[in-house]
Amino acid sequence: MTVATAVDTGLSRLAAELDDPARLSTRAIDRVAQASDASHYLLTPEAVVTAADAAEVARLLRTASTLRRPVTFRSGGTSLSGQSAGDGLLVDVRRGFRRIDVLDGGRRVRVQPGATVRQVNARLVRHGYRLGPDPASEAACTIGGVVNNNSSGMACGTTENTYRTLESMVFVLPSGTRVDTGAPDADAALQRAEPGLVDGLLRLRRRVAENPASVELIRRQFAMKNTIGYGVNAFLDHDRPADLLAHLVIGSEGTLAFVAEATFRTVPIRPRTATALAVFDDLDAATRALPALVDTGAATVELMDATSLRVGQGLADAPPQIVGFDVHRHAALLVEYQAFEADDLARLVAIGDGAIGAEPLRAPAPLSTDAAIRARAWKLRKGLYASVAGARASGTTALLEDVVVPVPALAETCASLQELFSRYAYRDSVIFGHAKDGNIHFMLTDRFETDEQLDRLTGFTDDMVDLVLAAGGNLKAEHGTGRAMAPYVRRQYGDELYDVMRELKRLCDPAGILNPGVIIDDDPDAHVRHIKLTPSIEAEADRCVECGYCEPVCPSKDLTLTPRQRIVTRRAMERASASGDHDLRRELERDYDYEGLQTCAADGMCATACPVLIDTGSLVKRLRTENRNRILETGWTAAARGWGAVTRVGSAALTLADAAPAGAVAAVTDAARAVAGSDTVPRYSAELPAGGCARRTLGRHVGAADAEPVAVYLPACVGSMFGAEGGGAGATAAFTALLARAGIAVTVPDGIEAMCCSTPWTSKGFPRGRDVMQRRVVDAVRTAVAAGLPIVSDASSCTEGFAHLLAGAGLDATVEDAVAFVDREVLPRLPAASHVASRLVLHPTCSSTQMGLNDALGRIAERVADEVVTPDAWGCCAFAGDRGMLHPELTASATAAEAAEVAALAGDAHASCNRTCELGMTRATGVGYRHILELLEQATR
Asked: What integer best gives the mean pLDDT of the chain?
C-alpha cells in the first residue's frame, strides 16, 4: 500500500492499528466481493478489514473517528435495507467472532457477532432451548445482525425478540471505549469513561419520559414490531445508563457502536408441533381469516400470496397442498401450533382444526404432526424471498420492503397494496410475511435505472408510506430502517422524536463515522440512490439474489471467496466492461483465477443451502473449462485412456514416497510446483498413505460365492490409488467381507481397473477426458442396468460422480453408495456387532449430505460405538479429489473449526465415508480417519 496521497495515508494509519496490517485490503476483488449484501443497494468500500477481536476494532474506531473515515460492519450480510453496505471502511466481523458459550444448561447463551442463528440453536437444542429471535434467514444471518436489527421472525413476535431477550452486551463505542453491561460496575465504568455521553442519555430520557405525546406515540408504535428509527422505547423501559445504552444499540444497525458479544436469555423449545398449509381462493379471504386464527393461540400464521404459490409450485419438493391446480388469485396461510405436552397440543389442534375448517378453503387443510410435512412447508416459507426473487427477469433487481399494521387492518392494507402495485405497474409483485403480527413483506422487481423507473419507485414509496401510516402501522417491522426508509423516519415519529434520535446519534458518534446514511438521513431522495443494478451473467448463477444463504457452508469462506462473492465478482466484471473500465475488468479476472476458480472445492454444498438451488461449483467448472490449458487437457485425456496404468503408477509412487522421508518427497513436489504451478502439481504431505491394492484382483463375483449378484459394484479408484489408514483393510475389502458375511453377492465389470466416476475431469474442466471415461463406464454397465441391477460404489463423492456420469449419458440407472446399500441390505443380515469404539467422531461428507446418506451413516456408526458424535462445526473438508493437495491452504482453512472441536471431543475412533475426505481430516486433525465400513467389518467379525 502506498502513502502518496492523503487517502492512502489515512488507510495506512488504520492498517497500523491491526496486529497484521495485511488484513486491510484495497484490492479491487476484495472490495467488490464485499460490496454486495442481500439488499437492493450497492456501495463499494474503499478498503476492507478483517478484524481479529474487539480490541482491534476499538483501535480502528478510535483512529477512524480522528480521521473522520466512515466505517461499516459486515457479518452475515443478509440485511435487506442497505445497512451492511458502505463506501468507506468495511470491517468484516464474521471470521474472527464466532465463539458460542452455552451457559446454565442452555438457559442463557453468550455469543459473538459472527455466529449464525442456526449455529447457536444447534448448540442449544440438545439442552431443549433456542434463541428467541427466529428469522427466516436463520441459516445465514448472524448474531451481529440479529442484535443490530432487533430481528424477530415467524414466532417470536414482540415478546421474544432481541430487545426482550437480551441479558447483557459487550459493545465498543466510536471513541474506542469498551462497555460490558453485564459487569457489576458497568454504570460506574461507563460514567468514568464517557461522562458526557451518560449525562446526555439521561437528559434525553427525561425529555422523552416527560413528554406525554412522545410517551403515547412510543407505547402505541412499539406495541407492534418496530425497527424504524432508533429503539426510543428504551428511554421508557430502562433507567440504568449501561442498560439504557445497550437497548438503544439494539436495532441501531451499526450506527452507534460495534456489538462484540451478546448474552441472551433463551426460550424453551416446545417440542410438539402441528402444522397446516391452508389455501384460500384469494388474498382477501386469507387475511380476513387472521383474527379468528390468531385468537386460537397459533404460534405462527404465515401468509403467502398467489405469486408465492406459483413460484413454490416449481420447487422440486413443493408441499402437496400447493400443487395440482392452477394458481390464479389464491393465497395460503401456514398455521402452526406448538406445545410442551401431547395433551396440550391435542387441545390446540382441536381448536385450530375447527377454526381452519370453518374458513372457505380450496381443499381441507387438517393440522398434521408429521415432521416431514412440516419440514416441506417451512422450507417453502423460509426460502420464499430468495425463491421469488430468483424467478425475476434477468437483469432486474429485487427490492423487498417490510411493514406492519394492526392485525385488524391487514386485509384492507393488503388490498390497497395490490392497488398500488397495479397503479405503478409492478406486475410481478409478491406479498408474504408474518400475518399473526400484522407484519408483511412485499417485493418489487425492476431495473431501477432510468429516471422514469426511479420516479415510479419514489411515487410508489410515498403512497405506500401514506397507506401504512394511515393504518396506524410502522414503516419497518423487522428488516431495519437502513437506507430504504431513512428519509421517512421523521414522518413516522414527528419532529420531536426525530430530533431525539439525531441527538442520540450525535452523543454516541460525534464524528459521524458509523454507517452514515443509515437510519438518519435528511436527503429526501436517499432511498433511491446507490440502487444495485444486476447485469446478466452466466446462466448457472444469473438468478442469484445475493442473499448469502450459501456462505456458512462454503469451505473457502475464510480463505478466498464465498459462492455469493464469486457471483458478485462476475457481475462486477460485467459492470466494468459496460462502463468501459477495462483495467478493472483485467484486474478482477487476474485475481479471480485463484480467488474464484482455483480455491473453489466445487463440492455443491452451496446448492444445499441456496433457496433457488444454485450450484456455484457448476459455474466454476464452466469457467475452468473455458479457461483450460489445452496442453494439460491433452495430458489428462491421455490419462483417461490409460487410467488403469495411471492408477497403478500412482499407487506405486505413493508406496515409494511412504518409504522415504516425507520432507524430502515434499521438497521434490514443491520444486515441481514452483515450475509448473500450484494448480497443476499436487503437494506431497506426511499423512498420505502408501498405495492401495489393484481392483482387478477382486474378480467378477464378489461376496457370497453361492449367491446371485444383486448389484453392479464399481469400487472407487481413490481406494485403489490411496491405501487404507494405518495399514487397515480399506473400504473395498471391508465391503466385500461384509457382503460375504451377510450372504450377498455383487458383480464387478471387466476392465474395472480403468474405470473412474470422471469427477477429476469434470472438476478440472477437461471435457474430452470425461467423455472417454463416460463411454467406458456406460459400455461396461449398460447390460446390467438394463437388467435392473443397481450400481454401487464405495466412496461417497465417487458414487455421486457415477450418478452424474450415467445420467449425463441418458442411462436410467439406480446408483447407490455402499453405505446406503449396507444399511439397507447388509446390516439386517449381520451378526450382532461388538462395539469397537467408546466415542466415535463422525465426519459426513458433502456428497453424503447431498445424496441423503447421513442417516444411514449414523445408523452404521451406532452399531460400532458406544457414542457417536458429529462435530457442530462439521463442514466440507475441501480435499475435493486432489484440490486439497494442490491447495493445502484450502483444506486447512475449511477444516480449522472442525479440527479444533475434534481435538476437544477426544474420540478414540474417527470415521467418514470417502477416502480423500478421510485423508483431509487426517491431515487436519492429526488422527487417523477410516471408512465407516472398516469399523463395521471389524465389529462384526
From this structure: 96
Tell me how far CA of residue 517 lies from CA of 175, 481, 487, 525, in angstroms. Answer: 20, 10, 9, 11
Helix/strand/coil percentages in the chain, nearest 5:
50, 15, 35
If you search the block for the grid coordinates 440407472, which residue do you land on? 813
Percent of the chain exceeding pLDDT 70 equals: 99
Residue 35 φ/ψ, nearest 5 degrees: -65, -35
Count CB atoms within 10 A of the CB of residue 110.
17
Residues with Cβ within 8 Å of residue 206, at least 6 apart in sequence:
none
Q: What is the pLDDT of residue 1?
A: 36
Please state the separation of Cα 725 from the chain's center in Å: 33
- Closest by CA to 830, choosing from 740, 909, 912, 911, is 740
Average pLDDT of the residues in 338-346: 97
Predicted confidence at residue 5, as pLDDT, reads 42
Average pLDDT for 349-360: 96
Written as nine digits, the cell of 246 is 445497550
Q: Put the strands of the sheet holding 166-172 in their side by side order.
A: 100-103, 108-111, 258-265, 166-172, 178-180
For β-strands 300-304 and 397-404, DSSP reports them as unpaired
Spatial neighbors of 473 by CB under 8 A, at least 6 apart, are 224, 403, 404, 405, 406, 409, 413, 438
Grid cell of 501 as nine digits: 434520535
Cell of 221: 408504535
Strands 89-92 and 47-50: parallel
- Residues 792 and 818 sit within 8 Å (Cβ to Cβ): yes
Non-local (6+) Cβ contacts of 262 within 8 A are 110, 111, 113, 143, 147, 162, 166, 168, 169, 170
Distance separating alpha carbons of residues 634 and 638, to the nearest angstrom: 6
> What is the C-alpha separation between 249 and 241, in angstroms, rounded?
12
- Name the nearest CA neighbour of 297 among 363, 355, 379: 355
Give CA–CA dist 347/370, Å, rounded. 17
Can you give the three-state secondary structure of 716-750, one letter per residue? CHHHHHECCHHHCCCHHHHHHHHHHHHCCEEECCC
Burial class (CB in 10 A: 0-12, 13-18, 19+), 68: exposed
CA neighbor of 549 nearest in space, from 78, 16, 48:
78
pLDDT band of 915, cuts 50, 70, 90:
very high
Q: Given a cut of 60, is residue 382 above it in pLDDT? A: yes
Q: What angle do CA 249, 253, 256 make, to 5 degrees?
A: 45
Alpha carbons 8 and 11: distance in angstroms, whole number: 5
* The three grid cell numbers given for residue 558, joined into one nine-digit string: 475464510
Angstrom distances, CA of residue 484 to CA of 225, 229, 388, 428, 436: 17, 11, 20, 20, 24
* Nearest C-alpha neighbor of 142 from the set 544, 482, 548: 548
Which long-range contacts link 577-586 to residues 24+ away (Cβ below 8 Å)? 578/535, 584/28
Grid cell for residue 934: 472398516
Instruction: Give the helix/strand (H/E) hosting 49.
Output: strand 47-50
